Amino acid sequence: MPATRRRTMQRVELLVVKNLIWAILALVFLGFSVTLPNFFTLQNVHFVLYVASAIGLLVFAESLVLISGSMDLSVAHIAGLSSMFVGALTIRWCPFLPGWTGLVLIVIVGAILGSINGFLVGRMRINPFLVTLSTFLMYNWLTFYINRGAISDVSPALVFPGGGRLAGIFVAIPIMLLVCALLGFVLTRTRFGGYIHALGGNSEAARMLGISLPWMNFWVFTIAGVLAGLSGLLYIGYLASIPSTIAGGDDIFLAFAGAIIGGVSLKGGEGSMTGALGGVLLLGMIDTGTAMTLINPALRGFLNGLILLLAILINKYRIALRDKLLMSRPGAMGMPA
């Protein structure tokens, strides 16, 4: 095979491996369309996007942290605590506050909670797994401490972003897509995004290049907190209330699954928001499809664990296949071009 044709084939293979999530998404969609005749409708696609919107922001938050070479076990409970605190503040403690202030406060609270992780990981240099495991527990029980049960008399201003519609489209969908596009731009077109990849790819080399690792970690976790706060806002609209379990215990594992199956590496330095979006859509599609087939809730919980396991296995073999293709390229390891 001529060298030029071989290089072209290898580029195509690498592109397919890198975007494997979209092939998986197409297969799952085809499977549900065959077994559920009414699955392939515009209305259902709209609903899949809506179902995926809140968890989608958690997937984006986890993807960002993973790309930087860390992990965050607390993003789901940042969403829950931010929602509960703002709900209690604007509805119970300070009812004189206008409803729209909650939209700002929920982002601020999410940023503060995320920055605590960022300070401990970045400035104190504590292992991110241990830090976020601790804050996972702290944020979860603080949510229950503020209010055990549900706040149902939620301000319409807090419900609208996650439950309102404009021109028939749920507002949560363009919010999710806009956040995805913005993060994708930051990661691929800005110096800050390059620093995030460098931090996850080789932190020592990044340090030698003059990148401040403590500050980068701080800002990555803070941004993840902002995204989690926004996710909590969408959950409020989706549920039209603020229960103590607003961000369920499984959500953090689904956030990991969506990021990993979307091509974000557990080792850091690799991943894209486009791939993460594919992972989000897959989670939404499976959730909608299994609900339509009336699968037992216990089996749906089992399926969530299975999805995470499959995501890890797919990621493992995707990386192995990518490395094999890269090593076989002309010029790699002294191979003739």
Descriptive tags:
337 residues; mainly alpha; ABC transporter involved in vitamin B12 uptake, BtuC; two-stranded antiparallel ribbon; two-stranded antiparallel sheet
Give an account of the 3D structure:
By secondary structure, the chain is mainly α. The protein has a single domain (21-326), classed as ABC transporter involved in vitamin B12 uptake, BtuC (Orthogonal Bundle), CATH 1.10.3470. The protein is built from 14 helices and four strands. It has helices spanning 3-18, 20-35, 42-67, 75-93, 101-123, 128-146, 156-163, 172-189, 191-201, 203-208, 213-239, 251-261, 273-292, 297-327, and strands at 150-151, 165-166, 169-170, 242-243. The strands form two sheets. Strands 1-4 form a two-stranded antiparallel sheet. Strand 2 (165-166) and strand 3 form a beta hairpin. Helix 12 runs parallel beside helix 14. The longest helix has 31 residues, at 297-327. The model is unreliable at 333-337 (pLDDT under 50).
